[in-house]
Amino acid sequence: MFNNILLSFIPVFVAVDAIGTLPIVITLTQGLDRKLKNRIIVQSMITALCLAVGFVLIGKLVFQALGITIGDFMIAGGIILFCLAIIDLISPVKRRRLPGDDMGVVPLGTPLIAGPALLTTSMLVISEYGLIPTLISVVANVLLAGVFFRFALAFVKILGDAGTKALSKVSSLLLAAIAVMLVRKGLASFVGPT
What is the pTM of this model? Predict the structure, then answer.
């Protein structure tokens, strides 16, 4: 059982990509007070946990009932991320987006933490290692992402204002690239492997 948990933890860790998401978290929470940032991080973890665990338990049935494929999900998530990246890149004013009550839900909780990569990976891991190891791996990785996000707030202090702004623009470019990749993979799923 422990071996299966460990073996399922690794691909789920790669799918969540909490470390790779840190620059995006810094960008989205820049200029917010500590209390609001912490609330957004907790909100993102709760959203990701609910979505990921729910998907592990009933995702296949819901997608089949609605006629939605993983490719559809990748394309939709990619379009949302691309729009956010473009707004970040072209807006001359950093407060381009007023922080709403749902920033932890979209885009942090989903599609950044619990996005197409995690949902697809969890379906594959279930078939390989079983339901319980997959659930444990998903929960552990989402909680670990929350810890990384919490330390991202301290990372901002180290970088300073200018460094954070520079990182923000670079992360917006990366976010746009990730969005294009998701759309490309989503489209590729309709035409088969290349």
Answer: 0.71
